[in-house]
């Protein structure tokens, strides 16, 4: 309880207090995990905290042997269990990094009975089975989603790169006769007409992963072919959330980001989604056109836009997710499956 309270900057917590309901988010979660590893010499990971988010549950989990893989493709941030097992989850698709831990910041805003299932890049686990296109990725995630929830109504969300994938999954579900009750796009834009893909060098990868912070990180491969090993070390040094990754895990994140950038730069949606969509605009990073206009060729329903006061790269930090979560809580109906 003491480690929970110290990390959350609270006077005290009880053995049954939920870390993410008391103000925890992915950055604080990684700090807590680091302190637990130091104090208890255990292999506990952020996945274990998602699975066991109270002091009592986490202590029991550690005693039984923690160490769940935090980079698995399907990551239950809040699993559907007990009385919540028939509540339709919110499925959240990763951004270019392939990692989806940040969506934990939505938990306190969605209601205690809403399962939240994150999808992470299969490339994080190696090249076997990794998709070669966004179309293949959407097919893969569709299959994983239907293992968790065989039939609708479905709720989908994606930030940046993940919005492209979420839209593709939504269109596939609709084509299969399923209901998509919610499609949320977090500062995600399809490529504009006439787009020409840039050369991807080391600096490009760092700024994709770190936002504007990546522009000033010194790196030898800044203007040349990305050096995955070098970039992995820079990522561990510069990103407080991913700092706890082992070198091989950080290298997998860089490799996934590189693959995702290449797929993103050649992707134009080949399908249209007939339902409505919610678009969340990071106002601190101006776009060439409004989200509704950018998505109009690919979404035939109504596109509602919501302004979020942040830069694009900070979209999954605590305050931006509070704004997003408040809108989602109003729109996520109490759907049963």
From TrEMBL:
Q: Give the transmembrane region(s).
A: none
PANTHER family in alphabetical order: FATTY ACID SYNTHASE, NONRIBOSOMAL PEPTIDE SYNTHETASE
Q: Which InterPro entries match?
A: AB_hydrolase_fold, ACP-like_sf, PP-bd_ACP, TesA-like, Thioesterase
Q: Per the database record, which ranges form the Carrier domain?
A: 1-66
GO terms for biological process? amino acid activation for nonribosomal peptide biosynthetic process; secondary metabolite biosynthetic process
GO molecular-function term, one example from the UniProt record: phosphopantetheine binding
Its name, as the record gives it, is: Carrier domain-containing protein
Q: Which GO terms describe its cellular component?
A: cytosol
Q: Which SUPFAM superfamilies match?
A: ACP-like, alpha/beta-Hydrolases
């Amino acid at each position: 309880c003491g480690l929970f309270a110290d990390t959350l900057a609270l006077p005290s917590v009880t053995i049954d207090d939920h870390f993410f309901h008391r103000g925890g988010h992915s950055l604080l979660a990684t700090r807590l995990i680091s302190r637990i590893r130091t104090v208890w010499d255990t292999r506990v990971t952020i996945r274990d905290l998602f699975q066991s988010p109270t002091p009592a549950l986490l202590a029991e989990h550690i005693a039984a042997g923690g160490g769940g893989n935090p980079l698995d493709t399907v990551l239950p941030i809040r699993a559907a269990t007990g009385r919540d097992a028939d509540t339709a989850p919110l499925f959240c698709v990763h951004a270019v990094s392939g990692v989806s831990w940040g969506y934990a910041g939505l938990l306190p805003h969605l209601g205690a009975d809403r399962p939240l299932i994150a999808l992470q890049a299969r490339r994080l686990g190696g090249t076997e089975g990794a998709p070669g296109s966004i179309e293949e990725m959407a097919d893969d995630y569709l299959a994983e989603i239907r293992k968790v929830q065989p039939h609708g109504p479905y709720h989908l969300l994606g930030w940046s790169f993940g919005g492209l994938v979420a839209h593709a999954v939504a269109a596939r579900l609709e084509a299969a006769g399923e209901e998509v009750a919610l499609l949320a796009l977090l500062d995600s834009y399809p490529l504009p007409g006439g787009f020409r893909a840039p050369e991807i060098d080391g600096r490009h990868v760092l700024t994709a992963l770190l936002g504007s912070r990546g522009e000033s990180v010194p790196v030898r491969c800044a203007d040349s072919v990305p050096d995955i090993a070098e970039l992995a070390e820079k990522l561990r040094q510069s990103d407080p959330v991913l700092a706890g990754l082992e070198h091989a895990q950080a290298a997998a994140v860089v490799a996934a980001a590189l693959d995702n950038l290449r797929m993103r730069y050649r992707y134009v949606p080949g399908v249209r989604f007939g339902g409505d969509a919610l678009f969340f605009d990071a106002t601190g990073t101006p776009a060439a056109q409004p989200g509704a206009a950018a998505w109009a060729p690919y979404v035939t329903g109504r596109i509602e836009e919501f302004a979020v006061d942040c830069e694009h790269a900070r979209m999954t930090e605590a305050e931006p997710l509070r704004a997003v979560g408040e809108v989602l809580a109003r729109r996520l109906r109490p759907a049963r499956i």
